[in-house]
Every structure is written in C-alpha cells, then in structure tokens.
Design goal:
By secondary structure, this protein is mainly α. The chain has helices spanning 36-48, 52-65, 70-82, 86-99, 103-120, 123-139, 143-160, 163-177, 185-205, 209-225, 230-246, 250-257, 265-278, 281-293, 299-313. The protein is 72% helix and 0% strand.
C-alpha cells in the first residue's frame, strides 16, 4: 500500500523569482494570480501540510479567476469536508460534477460528493449518491468503476453496523471485479487475496471468529504464493489486527495494526479502539486525535473521522 508523503509548499518559504529566499518577499504565487492551476497545486501542498485556511484561500482565489475550474471546485469541496463544512462542500463538489470534461473525472467528483455524506454520518444519502455514481458508470461502460462503487457502499455499511446489506454490496462489487478466465494468473491471485481480506473482516464483524481466522489463513497462503510483497504485508497487518480486535485479543490487535499503514486514518482509528478496549484511555485519545489530524480524503477517512470525532467529544455509543 502506498504511503502518503507530505510535500512542503514552496510558497510557504517565500522564494523569490530569482531563487533567493527573502523574508519580506511576497510568495511567488501572488505574482501569478491569473494561473488557477498553480493556485490549486499550491493549495494541495498546503492542505497536506495541515494548513487548511491557507489552502482554502488559494482554492477560492482560483475559483474567482476561473469559476468553471474542475480542479479548484473539487479541491475546495474536499477541503471543506475535512473542515466539517459539509453543505458548502457539496455545492462545490456538485459544481465539479457539472463542469467535468470527461466521464472519468465526473465519476471522481460524484464519488467525492457521495463521500461527503459519509463524512457527515448521513449514510442513506451516501448510499443514494454512490448508487447514482454506479448507474452512471454502468451506462458509460466503466464496469470496473461500477464494481468499486458497490464495494464502497458495502464497506461503509459494514463499518456502520449494517452487516447484512454491507456484505451483499461488498460481495456484488467483488464478483463484478472478478478477473476473466483468460487474464493472467497474477490478476486472479490479487482478486483471491482481496476476497479473503474482505471475507475475514465480514466474519469478524459477524463475531464468527473461527471463520475470520480461517479466512485470514487463506490470505496468508496467497501472500506466500505472491512472494510476500510489501504491499501485501501492509494489508495483512490491517486484517490480522481487525480480526484480533473483534476476537477481543486487544494486545495482538495493537501489535498488528501498529505495523500497518499508519498513514491510513482507519487503521489509526482501529488502534485507538484497541487501546480503549485495553483501558488505555491516554493512547486511545492520541490515536483518535491522529485520525482527526489526517488530511487524507478517502473512504477510510470518511468511515473513521466521524467515529473518532464522537470518541473525542464523548458522544459515541
């Protein structure tokens, strides 16, 4: 699983056009106000550095210059979701949908719009929007994308506790993604790996721990056949920690999850849950805070952030 690396924004350094740093110099971006794409790029760097207000200012400037900029509208919508300003976020994401130049980027904006409802905890609205994306993808021949949308619905519903409906959508999305018989064996092995990963997590949520462990064993066997790739190792620690948590083996859950992808907000949240179950409130809160500090806009973040926020505010059940 690829790690996310934060790239420092050059604009924050105040670099002059001649290349020398000057504390009193105006950042280069302000001398190029007519380039909305440059503003969006600078804004993204600032956002990943956690400088949300500065990034928002650049995105809004880009939209003032180019009101039909897809990238600026989508970037602002994503940022406002991370800031918790959901209604306005969806206005900008809808604008991105409306001005998208290709089906691919339109589907991306529609998916981002669907995720906005997940961030807000409005799961029926999230499912409705994902189903709309899925129908559009099917009409336009993007069957891989339609399968991914089904899996997204399944994952969100599973983690929200609707295990039966979540399983249905999850399995539908995987069956639609299944490689054809004439595809390379490597593609089939990848599908098998991810199928057992999903099945282990579903079984764990259903409290069928023996079945979850059996699926985890199948996952490990396929890892061996694939040569124990580094990316497989990351997602192994995720699923092993997940199964351990639902088996109430919280020591192992922490041990496994902390070896996983710590740029993934869902894994950070699961570590927090595991520490909380152990009675270690201090570490639990630390990982909930790290979940909230993540600047990733993803399915994992949409699932984890509302729960982490509730834990920190004392409103979770």
């Amino acid at each position: 699983m690829r790690r996310l690396f934060v790239v420092a924004a050059l604009v924050a350094l105040g670099v002059t056009a001649g290349g020398a740093a000057d504390r009193d110099a105006t950042p280069l971006v302000w001398r190029q106000p007519s380039d909305p794409d440059a503003l969006v790029r600078q804004g993204r760097s600032l956002m990943m550095a956690g400088k949300h207000d500065e990034a928002e200012r650049l995105y809004r400037q880009a939209l003032t210059i180019s009101p039909r900029s897809f990238e600026a509208a989508r970037a602002l919508g994503i940022l406002l979701n991370l800031k918790g300003q959901y209604p306005e976020a969806r206005i900008h994401l809808q604008r991105a949908v409306d001005v998208a130049a290709t089906p691919t980027v339109r589907h991306q904006a529609m998916s981002a719009l669907a995720l906005s409802y997940a961030f807000e905890g409005k799961l029926p609205d999230c499912q409705r929007e994902y189903e709309a994306v899925r129908r559009q993808q099917q009409v336009e021949g993007d069957m891989s994308g339609a399968a991914a949308s089904a899996r997204s619905i399944g994952r969100i519903l599973l983690e929200a506790g609707d295990i039966t409906t979540g399983r249905k959508w999850y399995e539908l999305g995987y069956q639609e993604w299944k490689p054809a018989a004439n595809q390379p064996s490597s593609e089939q092995l990848l599908w098998d790996l991810r199928w057992h990963h999903m099945q282990a997590r579903v079984a764990a949520k259903e409290r069928r721990i023996d079945e979850a462990r059996r699926q985890l064993g199948e996952f490990e066997a396929i890892m061996q056949r694939r040569g124990k790739l580094p990316e497989d190792n990351d997602i192994y620690h995720w699923v092993a920690g997940y199964v351990a948590y639902y088996a109430k083996d919280y020591e192992r859950a922490v041990a496994e999850l902390t070896q996983g992808d710590l740029d993934d907000p869902f894994i950070l949240y699961m570590i927090g849950l595991s520490y909380e179950a152990k009675g270690d409130t201090s570490n639990a809160k630390e990982y909930y805070r790290r979940t909230m500090a993540s600047n990733v806009y993803s399915l994992q973040s949409a699932i984890a952030r509302p729960q982490a926020r509730a834990k920190l505010s004392g409103t979770s059940q």
